[in-house]
Specification:
With 534 residues, the chain is an alpha+beta fold. The protein has eight helices and 32 strands.
Length: 534
């Protein structure tokens, strides 16, 4: 898909002084009661017992103890990792999240309309900035050495090159590895001169990358609750690119690689799920206003108003059944077969595409209906190939609403979901239709409809791969989102940080809880003092 950025988002937060959530207050009370109980036993002369702990694997063959302090064997280390993975499968009620940077607007000064996040790979771990992309499957990063790879980025980030020789845990994937068979399903596969499993990807905008697959440690944070973060890692297979072409060579939009979130077995989501480390579901919320940014989580965002539509099966992308389009509530005269999924048709959700693209047969009816709706306020003119409007009115007042009707689920769009703002030569505000006619981004896609970031922003999107469905609801992506994990428990995340174990209570309930908490603390502290004075 089209691969078209932003500095980290810093949101002002209130002081944390004396902010004690209900769960923490309960823990403090339990702790005080435990201390009181201990004082009571000591005061009465009661005895206490000591339990000696033994590490389960301390004296196993290959352990550090068995090797008399000379270090553990690689076999023992792998056994410990296997034990951890089994445990993680039992306690899969944590959340893995990625804070996003970037914007859907390709015309904001200095930015190019993409969303990206920071990951860490290798041993020792090193950081890499990668574009998130639901239109492809594989995570790949630029490697040493690399031909035509950009050295600097206009996004204000430092670029890094993955060095397989510099990571003690990196292992190239051989051509006979079973994972290489999975790779053959999503790319033109090839064997390098070293018999490594290679790949060749070409994207819709004509850019391409060449490389080979490696297995190495993928580092991530698991948020258990507001105060607990587990630093975790897992061995995954990803791409090591040594040659770039097209837009991937340009510095203005340069990142270290692309983070594919497709359905193939080699996607990071599928690999972590197969190891019992993450659910087979992920969500994103792309912030469109102000400075952009957002969040992507391995889990299900559970917000009111979420509607779901089935994913068209046996397709390489996230195809949905689009059945019609309405402007100001009036259905457009478009044959539904225009959107039906066939070999060269279909409707795709792709956060790696910046704008949106309508099939040729649907484009003119859509644009003409917008022009008709605003004709009493402004007339269109062509600017850089796009129908544009000069207006002093609020676009929400004069431009119509748009509804996309999917199977069982409507998607309501505001004017900012199909318009983008440009500046005219006299600096007057100009609004242009951002939906393009398909075929402009690739010669073989004139019949495809692609919904990119312009449409996906300011919505909570859920990709439920387990149940083969996609859901969404309009949402302020700068605020806290509730995320459901495997146990059914709901956790809240704010800009990539876990805040609490559920929906935030109202201000009144918070204040009431605080007063009760302080009363308990005062009461229990008084009892402790009385015991200590005996």
């Amino acid at each position: 898909m089209e691969k078209s950025g932003r500095h980290p988002i810093h949101r002002r937060r209130g002081p944390n002084f004396l902010k004690i959530p209900a769960l923490s207050c309960l823990r403090i009370i339990i702790l005080i009661v435990t201390v009181i109980n201990a004082f009571g036993h000591l005061a009465s002369g009661a005895a206490y017992s000591v339990v000696k702990l033994q590490h389960l694997y301390a004296n196993r063959e290959g352990s550090n103890s068995a090797n008399k302090g000379r270090g553990m064997s690689s076999e023992h280390f792998e056994m410990l990792k296997a034990h951890d993975r089994a445990r993680h499968g039992r306690i899969l009620n944590t959340i893995v999240d990625f804070t996003l940077q970037g914007t859907a607007d390709p015309f904001v000064a200095g930015w190019v309309g993409l969303y990206y996040t920071r990951i860490e790979l290798g041993t020792p771990p090193r950081p890499y900035y990668v574009q998130i992309d639901t239109g492809s499957d594989i995570l790949w990063v630029n490697c040493k050495p690399c031909n035509a790879c950009p050295l600097t980025s206009g996004l204000g980030i430092s670029l890094n090159f993955f060095d397989p020789q510099g990571s003690s845990s990196a292992r190239p994937l051989s051509c006979i590895d079973s994972k290489c068979v999975s790779a053959n399903q999503i790319s033109e596969s090839l064997c390098t001169t070293d018999r490594y499993c290679g790949y060749s990807f070409e994207y819709g905008d004509g850019s391409g990358t060449l490389g080979y697959y490696v297995s190495d440690e993928f580092h991530y944070n698991q948020y258990v609750n507001q105060y607990t973060t587990n630093n975790s890692s897992a061995s995954i297979t990803f791409g090591c690119s040594y040659n770039q072409s097209g837009d991937l060579t340009k510095s203005d939009r340069a990142v270290d690689g692309i983070f594919g979130f497709g359905q193939n077995d080699l996607s990071v989501v599928s690999q972590l799920n197969s190891q019992g480390l993450a659910p087979k579901i992920f969500s994103h919320c792309l912030e469109g206003e102000d400075r952009g940014g957002g969040i992507l989580v391995l889990g299900e965002i559970t917000e009111p108003g979420m509607v779901y539509t089935p994913i068209v099966p046996s397709q390489p992308h996230y195809n949905l059944n689009l059945q019609g389009i309405a402007v100001n509530g009036k259905q457009l005269s478009i044959d539904p077969q225009v959107f039906a999924t066939t070999n060269n048709r279909g409707t795709i959700v792709d956060c790696g595409t910046t704008l949106a693209y309508l099939a040729e047969e649907a484009y003119d009816p859509f644009v003409n209906s917008i022009i008709t709706a605003v004709s009493q306020y402004t007339q269109p003119f062509i600017m850089k190939g796009n129908p544009c409007f000069l207006t002093v009115h609020s676009i929400d007042e004069i431009f119509p609403s748009v509804t996309l009707y999917f199977e069982g689920a409507p998607m309501d769009l505001k004017p900012r979901d199909y318009l983008f703002q440009q500046l005219s030569p006299d600096t007057s505000p100009v609004w242009c239709i951002g939906w393009q006619k398909s075929g402009q981004q690739a010669t073989d896609s004139s019949k495809m409809t692609i919904l990119g970031d312009l449409v996906l922003k300011d919505k909570a999107f859920v990709y439920d791969l387990q149940n083969q469905r996609i859901g969404w609801t309009n949402f302020d992506c700068s605020s806290t989102v509730n995320v459901s994990v495997a146990t059914g428990e709901s956790k809240s995340i704010d800009s990539g940080k876990l805040n609490s174990n559920g929906s935030p209570p109202s201000r009144i309930l918070k204040e009431l809880d605080m007063k009760l908490c302080y009363c308990f603390l005062f009461l229990m502290s008084s009892i402790v003092i009385l015991y200590s004075n005996k």
